[in-house]
Design brief:
It is built from ten helices and ten strands. 28% of the residues lie in helices and 11% in strands.
């Protein structure tokens, strides 16, 4: 079973395996349908497209939720069943931005108890660079029954985060860029800044210059410094809307530090309540 990261070579060896499913999560925040059009032209053979807005998020409610709220559990069970995912299936997910969007589906599947899911290291750019097969064929998978075993403790709310303000054992990690953390160059959300007490941990620092995840030892060293003695399983990651925060969760898990938690509403949810403090 592959449950964190997987190489293009291993993926290539299983393209014809009936118990493997491949998902393309390429996405551009400012042009939501651009990458689905690119997928229609070329993708991994047998891959399905997972759209960030339509598949991996529920419609946002302005002033009440973040920009990409999690879908209801039953909606996800129905979707994963339609996609042909059951307990026997190995899932592989990729994008073209170092896993920045693929990690959302990785986290959601594991949150609902499906451990056999991995992000392809280097994603689409590495796959193409290595000259591996591509296809324009669009497939319709055979529906199966996805059985969920939800890990409720992996998800926290804004109230949970606020209750941890004075708890030294809980490290809150902000996966956005350092300038947005500082309240500079904020172009996505109406309020700039960060959650008080949060530590800047940009997800891009999990990657090497080629867009692959750094080594386990590098990531372990980096996150042990960020955690500063607090346990990884109590750490909370957030970002702008609950997507790239999952990249830090993947990096910590891949580095052998265990499973940490997600504030899925993230910054765009935090600022919907003016009573919540902003740093």
């Amino acid at each position: 079973m592959h449950d964190s990261l997987i190489s293009p070579q291993i993926v290539n060896e299983h393209l014809e395996d009936s118990n493997w499913r491949f998902f393309d999560c390429r996405y551009v925040l400012t042009e939501p349908d651009k990458k689905q059009a690119e997928f229609a032209v070329s993708h991994l053979p047998g891959a399905l497209y997972a759209h960030m807005n339509r598949d991996l998020a529920a419609p946002p409610i302005p002033g009440k939720t973040g920009r990409h709220p999690l879908p209801e559990k039953q909606e996800l069970i129905k979707l994963f069943s339609t996609w042909g995912i059951d307990h026997a299936v190995q899932v592989v997910i990729y994008d073209d931005t170092g896993g920045a969007y693929a990690v959302r589906l990785w986290w959601m599947l594991r949150w609902l108890g499906h451990d056999a899911v991995a992000v392809m290291d280097g994603g689409w750019p590495r796959w193409v660079k290595e000259g591996r097969p591509v296809s324009a064929d669009l497939i319709i998978p055979k529906a199966v029954e996805f059985k969920a075993n939800q890990r409720e403790h992996w998800l926290v709310t804004a109230e949970d985060v606020r209750n941890y303000f004075d708890n030294p054992e809980v490290r809150v990690l902000d996966a956005r860029s350092r300038d947005r953390y500082r309240g500079e160059n904020e172009t996505l959300d109406p309020v700039a800044g960060h959650i008080p007490g949060a530590v800047s941990a940009p997800f891009v620092e999990n990657l090497d210059p080629d867009g692959n995840l750094k080594s386990k030892s590098e990531l372990r060293k980096m996150y042990l410094e960020l955690l500063d003695g607090s346990p990884a399983e109590k750490a909370i990651s957030y970002c702008g809307s609950g997507i790239t925060a999952c990249h830090n969760i993947l990096a910590m898990y891949y580095a052998g530090l265990g499973n940490s938690r997600l504030y899925s509403g993230s910054w765009s949810d935090w600022i919907t309540n003016p009573e919540r403090l902003v740093a």
